[in-house]
Amino acid sequence: MGRPPCCDKSNVKKGLWTEEEDAKILAYVAIHGVGNWSLIPKKAGLNRCGKSCRLRWTNYLRPDLKHDSFSPQEEELIIQCHRAIGSRWSSIARKLPGRTDNDVKNHWNTKLKKKLMKMGIDPVTHKPVSQVVLEFRNISGHGHENASFKTEPSNNSILTQSNSSAWETMRNTTMSHETYYNNSPMIFTNPASSEFQTTPFHFSNHSNHLLNGTTSSCSSSSSSASITQPNQGAQTPGTNFCWNDYLLSDPVLPQNSQTQVVGSSATSNLTFAQNEHHINSLAECSSHNNIDTNASGTSHSASSFVDEILDKDQEMLSQFPQLLNDFDY
DNA sequence: AAGTCACTCAACCGCAGGACG
DNA sequence: GCGTCCTGCGGTTGAGTGACT
């Protein structure tokens, strides 16, 4: 038995709000304040669902909201936060005074995602698209160099976004690392090296790291927010980088279940962003691609995996208590 | 000028979790 | 412990609008 609707939807108005309706809400809130939104429509004389009133207030009418466009600093902060915690828009919005989760979400979906894709960054994983392509190839069994794409991926990564042109581009061309190197120089921090750099998107040419209080302060080894991928050596071009390797070397996973321990530095350099990123990656990997992490050679059960994440979570929080102030999770 | 397409963003929907009786 | 109500959240939709043909 499902929950009854919050209101009689057949008798409430839907759609855009009129100035008159806005004025009613503003007048009511000015006198009584916010709270108990289910009663507000009746008391304020509105033929609207309480939920709709609350949304109108929180997303548009609140006096502390900004209605101007996003600044470059705000955009940078959104990208950094998204890389760290994924699509937790309310948490990200709390970092941006005057912005709502809806604002942030819309801005991400309409502007920032495209901006990243233009730069050759997969907006879901925040990895260079070339790396995502390599991983997909391995997952889908098209690991050899000249394999053509035969099946489309099923996750929400750049390969399946509404931006089908990106997919078409990649399907029709074998993406060379040089292509991405040339198209997105910001990604690759070592242009002189012939080694393929896998450092995800990083505003390295910005002097102000807006997230110093979050990602950077959490790093025990670096002042930048750049992320060093685990098992980096396996990701050089021409080698058979495998998504499973990525999982197996994940610092979140139990060490004794990893067939190959990457090295203590990989764990000691672990940042908050890394952990979040990996957890998100794992979740996406398993949910979107139906990849069973147990099938990757690990022997832990699902519950022990969750326990492991929680343990690591506790460990991180004890080491970096400031996280509690930065993100609610 | 008219039609089509792409984009933006306000609003809706359904679910989850917390508070409370 | 259970049911109900309220609120918060993230994903999705669709009306409005401007750009393009």
TrEMBL record:
Residue stretches of biased makeup (Low complexity): 216-226
Keywords for this protein: DNA-binding, Nucleus, Repeat
Origin: domain of life: Eukaryota
Domain HTH myb-type residues, every copy: 9-65, 66-116
Region Disordered, annotated ranges: 214-234
Xref: InterPro entries: Homeodomain-like_sf, Myb_dom, Myb_TF_plants, SANT/Myb
Cited SUPFAM superfamilies: Homeodomain-like
UniProt-annotated location(s): Nucleus
Span of domain Myb-like: 9-61, 62-112
Cross-referenced Gene3D superfamilies: Homeodomain-like
Pfam families: Myb_DNA-binding (PF00249)
Principal subcellular localisation of the protein: nucleus
UniProt protein name: Transcription factor MYB35-like
